[in-house]
Every structure is written in structure tokens, then in C-alpha cells.
Amino acid sequence: MVSLCDDVDINDYKLTPKQQKVAELLTVVDKASVKEVCYYTGYTQSVTDSLVKKKIAKYFTDEVMRIPYTVSNVKKDEVVLSPSQQSAFDNLYSKYCEDKASVSLLYGVTGSGKTSVFMKLIEKCFNDNKGTILMVPEIALTPQLIKIFTSRFGDNVAVFHSGLSIGERLDEYKRVSRGDAKIVLGTRSAVFAPLKNIGLIVMDEEQESSYKSEQTPRYNARDIAKFRCYKHNALLLLSSATPSVESFYMAEKIYNLVKLTERYGKATLPQVSVVDMNEEQMKGNFSNYSSTLKELLSSNLIHKKQSIILLNRRGYNTFLSCRSCGQVVTCPNCSISMTYHSANNRMMCHYCGHSVPYTDECPDCHQHTLKFSGAGTQKAEQELVDMFPSARVLRMDADATMTKSSYETKLTAFANGEYDILIGTQMVAKGLDFPNVTLVGVINADQMLYSDDYRSYEEHFLY
Q1: CB-count burial class (<10 Å; 0-12, 13-18, 19+) for 78
Q2: Residue 107 to residue 248: CA distance in whole angstroms
Q3: Which helix (H) or strand (E) holds 121?
Q4: In this structure, are strands 346-348 and 339-341 parallel, antiparallel, or unpaired?
Q5: Please, what is the Cα angle at 389 between 385 and 393, to 5 degrees?
């Protein structure tokens, strides 16, 4: 950047016509980049160099931070808590005021208003000039929280997740390091935010496996959060409607356990129907959608209501097996079954990324008898389109949200009523708030019981 030096009157100097024109421009605009000065005057940088040499102008740097979100209008409305929420807040605030390292588990039913409780706690921490880290398990949850928190704290909020560009991440890191942002939102990587004085770390949906990094460096964000709270004498708040078995056990024995047993306001728990798909198949229904779910989806479309379909498997078919020898096609690196993706007509491993073009030839017996089995979100989406041709269907999974800001763009479109049905993996199952959604269908609800994880029963319960 270039600007005139302080207390400089250009009339006191004998300038060339080019220097005079540049000096007059700087008098009007106060400061500008050298490139802009050259562009608007048509001169080269040598003109500004000569002004700097005469100590009429000066060069300086003006850093412009890239803010990866839009700051909402700041509102300072008081957070209104119900009696049960207030009781939970008082308990947690007393732990926070002890000014020593501690862990609390906020265990509340879905819709009980856990977010309001820790928002008020974050507000107290912010007023004490201390830093807060709020972690969520999915990038899809960050846009909604950004809107809520920027509306209260403005640009004091920083965001950390893998969906940002490297430059945006660097700028957010600088803002936090300098103390310009004291509230950090993000996924597991947010736990490393360079806050100088941490007062509170919140882990929402603490049971999620996505808090563990399966890539180098491998770490569990919960363990890192405990360590940072210990170093800063801060409160670690774990929040969940379905806490992990070990967290709940520790909360009963060692941690502080806080419960919210009722929904906020007049909200009630939803009616749940379980449909046996074996009986459906006996009636001739071999699709992934029960007749009950089809009727309810049709009713929602008629009444202009929205629906969400959860299927925690991406791809088209979850595996391919041979009708001759019975062998399942597996990844040569991981020994995990390959998933067929219709978009690129390839069989892919969801663990290491290995992929091969689709063929009906069995790699073991070499007979052309491979058949598709199982269903992923791509197949479930196609079935929806076939059943309801006029319905506007939106799919959200790792394949459909690869581009930057795709999470926010898709969720905003759904919230604005541009789609009737949202189908996706676990990223659509947690913490989202859509008032017009009156139906949620879970396809193959028991499939996780048979996954290749020794904790599959626990994991399934958490969903």
C-alpha cells in the first residue's frame, strides 16, 4: 500500500506532472495499493518510488483477513431459559466459577435446549474475557451455529474446519492468535485453536466417532480437550442426548452429571413407528421404503411439508457378491467390501479410496455372475425419484458435498423450501433445525448392528 506521509502539503514540493497526479490521487483516496495507483494513473511504480524517496509518500502493508462467513446483525437479546435449563446452567456455571480443571456431562433429551444452556455459559465466559472452543462432529452443523453465534458476538467468532481454504484457515488462526476472536467454532481440528486464555471447551454430540482422527496425526479431540482444560484450569462440557458409554460411566463416577429430562417449551417427543421389512417383502414390496413410509411421504408432499430420510451408507450398492461362488468383492488393501457408485460406474473402498471400474466378472471364479446387494444413498435417492417424480429431492453425503461451501449451500436451500425431501448419511441426523420438517424416515435401521466394528451395538444405539 502507499499513502502520503503525515502532515505533508503537496503544494510545498516541486513535483513532475506524473508525481503531481499521483499525489493528488492519494490526497483524495487517502491510501491505495501500488497496483491500483498504477492502474488508475497509467504510470509505472517508479513514480510512487520517487515520491517515497522524497519522503512525500510512504509504503506500508495493509493485511486484509478473509472471513469465511457472513457476520449477521448483532443482537444482544437475553437468552431465556426454562426452569430446568436454568437449573442445569446454574450447576455448570458454579463449576466454571471454581476456576479449576473439571469435566461435566450435559445429558439432555433431543430438543431439550442444550444449545441455549451452553450458549449462555459461553456468554459468561466471553464477558470474563476468556476464550471458548465449541466443537461439533460434522461440518454440516457449522453454518447453523455460525449464524446463531455471529448474531450475538459478531466478528469475535472464528471458524475451523477442513471445508475452508488454506488461506482462510491461516487468517482464522491469526485472528485467534492475536486475540481478535475469542470464540472458536469448528470440527475436531478446532481443539488446537491458539487461544491464550481458555475458560470453556464444549463438545456437542460428544459420542461421535468423527472426533477421532483416523489419519496422521491420530488423536482423539476429547483427550486433547481434557489436556487443554487441565493446562488452563478450564471447564470441559460434554453435551449429548446419547452420550458414549464411557462418558456416561465417568459422569456417574467422577465427572459432574447434569440432566435435562424434558423438551423445551411445548415441544413433545415424536411418535415412532417400527416397520418389519421382512413382512413387507412377503407382501411383494422389495424396495427400501416400507408402505407406511411411502404413504407418509406422499401425505407430506400433498401438504407442502418437508421430510428427511436417513441412510448411513453412501454409494449405490453397498457390496457385490458372486452368484456362482458366493464371494463378496473386497478391497485388496483393506479386505473391506467394495461399494458400487453409479455416478462414475466404479467400485470403491470407503476406507482407503481404492477404486476399479465396474465389471460383472467375479475376481475369484471369473464367472460373469456378480450381482448387486445392499443399498446406499444413491440408490435410495433413485427410488425416491421413481416413486415421486414431481418431488424435489436433495442428497447429502460425502460424495455430494465435496466442493467448498456445499454443506451451507445445500442446507440453506433445503431450509428455504427449495426441496421437499432431504436424504443423507449421518450428516443430516444431528443438530439441524428445520421447522417445516414433519417426517423423518430411517432406512435399514438395524444394518449398523452387523457392521465390522466390535462396538457396533453401542454405535447403533447412539444413532
Answers
A1: exposed
A2: 9
A3: helix 114-127
A4: antiparallel
A5: 50
Amino acid at 277: M
Contact 78, 159 (CB under 8 A): no
- Give the DSSP per-residue string, 362-411: -TTT--S-EEEES--HHHHHHHHHHH-TTS-EEEESTTT--STTHHHHHH
CB 107 within 8 A of CB 462: no
Cα(163)–Cα(9) distance, rounded to whole angstroms? Answer: 49
pLDDT digits (tens, 9 = 90+) for 268-300: 778 888 888 878 878 888 888 888 999 999 999
CA 271 to chain CA centroid, Å, is 28
| Element containing residue 2 per DSSP (H, E) | strand 2-4
User: 88 is written with which cell numbers?
Assistant: 442445569
Distance of alpha carbon 403 from alpha carbon 406, whole angstroms: 6
- The residue to which cell 456416561 is assigned: 248
Instruction: Identify the three-state secondary structure at position 34.
Output: helix
Measure Cα distances from 371 to 7, 44, 315 in Å.
Answer: 82, 69, 15
Question: What type of residue is 428?
Answer: V
3-class DSSP state of 262 = coil
Q: Quick: pLDDT tens for 410-460.
A: 888 888 889 999 998 877 777 677 888 899 998 888 776 655 566 767 776
Give the pLDDT band of residue 263 (cuts 50, 70, 90): confident
Q: Quick one: which of 460, 429, 463 has its CA closest to 447? A: 460
DSSP 8-state secondary structure symbol assigned to residue 324: T
Q: 370 - beta bridge partners?
A: 322
Which stretch of DSSP H or E encloses residue 201? strand 198-204
Q: Quick one: how many helices (H) and strands (E) in the chain?
A: 14, 19
Task: Report pLDDT for 82.
Answer: 85
SS3 337: strand
What is the C-alpha to C-alpha distance for residues 93 and 204, in angstroms, rounded to an integer? 17
Residues in contact with 231: Cβ distance below 8 Å, sequence separation at least 6, in sequence order: none
Q: Which residues pair with 198 in a beta bridge?
A: 131
Residue 256 is which amino acid? N
Is the bond preceding 17 in cis, omega lying within 30 degrees of 0?
no
Amino acid at 201: I
0.90 exceeded by pTM? no
Q: How far apart are CA 277 and CA 279, in angstroms?
A: 5
Residue 4 has pLDDT above 80, yes or no: yes
